[in-house]
């Protein structure tokens, strides 16, 4: 039999940790002296301690290790545990590599332009939505209000119910900038189902991955924000994958002060 200190040296597990393993039932001493409360371990527990250490080094938590030890001698069961952990670690590596890429590109952008971080770009997924939509050619971009007026007028009697995470947005379908006759679609997320009206179409929109930047203030900043998002897309191994759009978190309908507007500029993207 081995005293806890000797077992600690041979197993290379601290006495404090051995006591913790005992408390949670992971590695219980063979015997405890009823008078001195000294813990004694047997030599055949050393392989078990080695298994615990090896599994900890792989990233398993103690609760999972306890489950693994119950079927450690079953290669098929052990392989399943290892495969699950391998997938978890691979995902952690992917996320870490992505963070490194974000850091590297942010540093590089700052070297080129010390205002590059004024607009913080994020990559995220806009979930599937059910929307009320109006799409038309309008005289110019600043005439977007014509579409919102159509939406409000034609749905006034429908008592539209906004979705829990309601958002209003405008999609700019033209391939490039146009001076006139611009193809714009507006959307408002709603819950329930409704019949189409003359100009309003109700439809489900699939989830989409976007690179976006949110800014506060007038639309005069839009071109600068567009450049910031476009540079981020090019620097981070993505490519554009659809029409650019703006989500209006605080819209002109909610405030008369342009400096209080909050707009999120969004570009659908995919990995190269």
What is the distance, rounded to the nearest whole angstrom, between the alpha carbons of the first and last residues?
61 Å
Number of helices: 7
Share of helix among residues?
Answer: 25-40%
Low-confidence stretches: none
The residue-averaged pLDDT reads: 90
Please provide the ordered H/E string of secondary-structure elements. Answer: EHHEEHHHEEHEEEEEHEEE
Q: Hey, roughly how much beta strand do the residues contain?
A: 25-35%
Count all strands and give the number. 13
- General shape: elongated
Strand-pairing-aware structural class: alpha+beta
Major sheet characteristics:
10 strands, antiparallel
Radius of gyration, CA atoms, in whole angstroms? 30 Å
Characterise the protein shown here.
- The longest helix has 38 residues, at 75-112.
- This protein is an alpha+beta fold and 272 residues long.
- Helix content is 37%, strand content 27%.
- It has helices at residues 4-11, 15-24, 46-57, 62-70, 75-112, 145-154, 222-235; strands at residues 2-3, 31-32, 39-41, 121-126, 129-138, 161-162, 168-172, 182-191, 201-205, 208-216, 238-240, 245-250, 262-271.
């Amino acid at each position: 039999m081995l005293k806890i200190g000797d077992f600690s040296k041979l197993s290379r597990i601290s006495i404090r940790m051995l006591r913790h393993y005992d408390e949670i039932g992971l590695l219980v001493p063979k015997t405890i002296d009823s008078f001195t409360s000294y813990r004694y371990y047997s030599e055949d527990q050393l392989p078990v301690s080695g298994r615990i250490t090896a599994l900890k080094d792989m990233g398993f938590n103690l609760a999972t290790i306890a489950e693994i030890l119950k079927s450690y001698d079953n290669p098929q069961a052990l392989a399943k545990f290892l495969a699950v952990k391998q997938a978890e670690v691979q995902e952690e590596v992917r996320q870490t590599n992505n963070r490194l890429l974000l850091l590297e590109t942010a540093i590089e952008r700052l070297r080129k332009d010390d205002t590059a971080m004024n607009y913080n770009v994020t990559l995220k997924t806009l979930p599937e939505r059910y929307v009320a939509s109006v799409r038309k050619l309008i005289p110019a971009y600043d005439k977007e209000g014509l579409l919102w007026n159509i939406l409000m007028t034609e749905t006034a009697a429908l008592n539209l119910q906004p979705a829990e995470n309601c958002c209003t947005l405008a999609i700019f379908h033209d391939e490039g900038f146009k001076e006139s006759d611009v193809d714009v679609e507006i959307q408002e997320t709603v819950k329930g189902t409704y019949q189409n009206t003359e100009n309003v179409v109700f439809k489900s929109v699939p989830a989409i991955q976007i690179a976006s930047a949110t800014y506060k203030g007038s639309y005069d900043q839009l071109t600068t924000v567009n450049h910031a998002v476009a540079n981020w897309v090019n620097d981070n191994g993505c490519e554009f994958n659809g029409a650019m759009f703006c989500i209006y978190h605080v819209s002109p309908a909610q405030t008369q002060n342009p400096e209080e507007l909050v707009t999120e500029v969004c570009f659908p993207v995919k990995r190269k």
